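Issue: ligand-bound run for nicotinamide-adenine-dinucleotide - logging full I/O for the record.

Environment: standard queue, default settings, no custom constraints.

Inputs:
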Amino acid sequence: MLEKVSTTTTADKTVLEDTSVYETAVRQLQAAADKLGIDEGVYQILSRPKRELTVNFPVEMDSGEVQVFTGYRVQHNLAGGPGKGGIRYHPDVTLDEVRALAMWMTWKCAVAGIPYGGAKGGVTCQPKVMSNRELERLTRRYATEISIMIGPDQDIPAPDINTNAQTMAWFMDTISMHRGITVPGVVTGKPLSIGGTLGRVEATGRGVMIAAREAASQIGLALDGARVAVQGYGNVGYYAARLLAEQGCTLVGVADSTSGLYSETGLDADALRQYKDTNGSFAGYTGVDRVSPQELLELPCDILVPAAIEGQVTAANADKIKARIIVEGANGPTTPEADAILYDKGILVVPDILANAGGVVVSYFEWVQNIQHYFWDLDEVNQQMESIMVRSFAEVTELAREEGASMRDAAMLLAVGRVVEAMRVRGVYP
Ligand code: NAD
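Outputs:
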């Protein structure tokens, strides 16, 4: 029996404002479309999502109270294959944000040359104050609500901010219960015991490390001794920090959503992870200098890895950035205004749709393994991912050189060109 229905408090910000993150994504598309001279009709198709679903659904909290949550699943473009994209749990999730993230997934899959379209999902919620049982009930109900759009041949979710292998296990189990058979290929980023792949947990961070290594070699920067600062210390940030440290880099700064740390002589990536796991944040960490998550971006360093959320490098701080290379672990961390400033300053920005593609590439391998019921060893996963990252990096670099463009513009030209070609050969139905 329902005792009380209350709604989540975060305001719905789905209106497309000038400053919205979706607007940023559309402006990036527009620039590429202008340069490629694509047909206006094709631009109109690409500038809005193919399909979007908003669901409002109840979840019984541990207290017995029922709360109503809002969730989304957006498929931006499916010309290249089934939808692919993560699921985010965060208080700031809006339809606007999910739309932008879905569009970026279309470009990311195209840059990597993997047979997917772009999709994304999210639930507006406060996962940090919810119990595991509450998160499980939320996940199972959200999975049920969006199940009409999901499937191994339709749309395949994966983890994103505040979701992980356990979330994917609940999601996969829910869809499997509905269908009466185990459907491992419905999500990626699953635990190994139910058809996950070796190498997926660290894949995005590993890809960021490879992108940083390629970028460093391009500007003649030795990785050994290069100073690295990482904003966001979750799945992407931690593995990027740790793997870059293994390459000889010095981790001089890290930040989570509450606070940041700086040490000229270097921080220990694993010790920081352990501290954050135990204490929830870096807030009480002592013995090194403290910086805010924003100040972290402006630290003296060689390589900056934004690995938190969108809109962190803006016109307000781009000029103060001292790094020589920015490798975008996060999706959409740089605004178009900031991009222009960074380009003028000669800072090499490896764009998100290239830099953090390691995750979706290994997700693709997981899906392939699920479909074939045949599993690869870790070396195979890492080698194949590395070869796709290195090839994509070289293709983007070559196009940037030919066009005299930034890596972001080149990556967008490559991606949009590939998607437009897939749309052209498929034609307009009917
Ligand atoms: P996560 O939930 O594991 O970690 C997010 C981290 O960012 C946490 O440490 C959090 O404290 C921090 N954070 C949040 N807001 C912040 C702020 N304002 N300033 C500083 N730190 C902040 O999430 P994740 O999976 O590591 O994802 C991080 C980013 O990488 C997101 O943009 C996500 O879309 C992108 N991404 C993730 C994957 C993946 O495989 N997980 C793949 C590609 C891209």
